[in-house]
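Follow-up to my post from last week.
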Amino acid sequence: MNIPMRTYLVTQGDRSRGRGTGSIVRAAIEGGVDIVQMREKHTSARERYELGKELRALTREADIPFVVNDRVDIAAAVDADGVHLGDDDLPVSVARDHLGEEAIIGRSVSTPEAASEAERAGADYLGVGAVFATDTKDVNEGEAEIGTETIAEIAETVDIPIVGIGGINADNATEVVNAGAAGVAVVTTITDADDPAAATQQLRQAVENGRTTV
Amino acid sequence: MNIPMRTYLVTQGDRSRGRGTGSIVRAAIEGGVDIVQMREKHTSARERYELGKELRALTREADIPFVVNDRVDIAAAVDADGVHLGDDDLPVSVARDHLGEEAIIGRSVSTPEAASEAERAGADYLGVGAVFATDTKDVNEGEAEIGTETIAEIAETVDIPIVGIGGINADNATEVVNAGAAGVAVVTTITDADDPAAATQQLRQAVENGRTTV
Ligand code: NI
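User reply:
Got it. Predicted complex:
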């Protein structure tokens, strides 16, 4: 499966300066984002279902993949392309059984061991972080900074693509890709930007300046 | 669909005095519980998936229905009989599409209007509350006490069975059933009891003392 993910947006409505997540996603698409994940940790399932339908329509129109964090049922209900799962979520194998072979299933990991395990379990790609220390809640608070060395280690360990996440912006994205990541995932670098479209474009340029593996 | 629900247990591990939810469910089955819902609001999806498999095995052995709160995907993954949904969860119609005609789909409501709407949407039964004021977290904090009058009103309004929830115990369960409920749903009356099996049996007796509609 060749999933485009040089620039990967993870949504977070309450980090979007009151702008709707739909408008952030529109702007990111305008700026050339490759893939969108709806996260929205602090909203109800019902709200995520409604937002998911909107984001599915926008991403379908733009012909880019759309995945849902955690909830396999919401992903199925809004006809998303797949899910992104963490340690606390359903196992990759359960999501695969539920969504089928064609679904995109991503998994968050931070060690080579967890990366190998997720690959064996059938993950299509890995989100790896937190790459850099962050106060922007891209990742869970208190999550350790793993650095680009671990990106390199994990990229060596698995055959599936990995995206770095955590504290990544246009200034350091090239470094992440040069370490072996297929791309970079961001929350606030886009959602909290003055101009989310321009921020996406700058991030994309920084990734393209690196040695992309896609 | 004839769903047995004179005594309906809603699990809550952190209101079970440190006893595992599996052991509470075993005791409730021993005491004659009719149906079990796994709620467990404060645990991760992964934990609910693991617990759900355990509760599914126990309820299957006892040949009683097992439903999962909120998460349609976890319900499907553990082969539960259905789901119980509230205002914040996926719509009944989405759960029905996902789980199929045979699934048991319950819906929480507190007004006759919401009850009618849920029935039209295809709910198989309704959880109605909070019947009595409660400090036991059977229902959401701050939820209004609706009393047995509303139970009677809703029982008049819909053709699907309803269970009362909120502050119900062996002392007042008969009154709830006499108002028109098919049964009573409880959390702590069983989970926090000295003897959960005996508590279930007493609750069951109180329901049978009333005019059951099942
Ligand atoms: Ni399904």
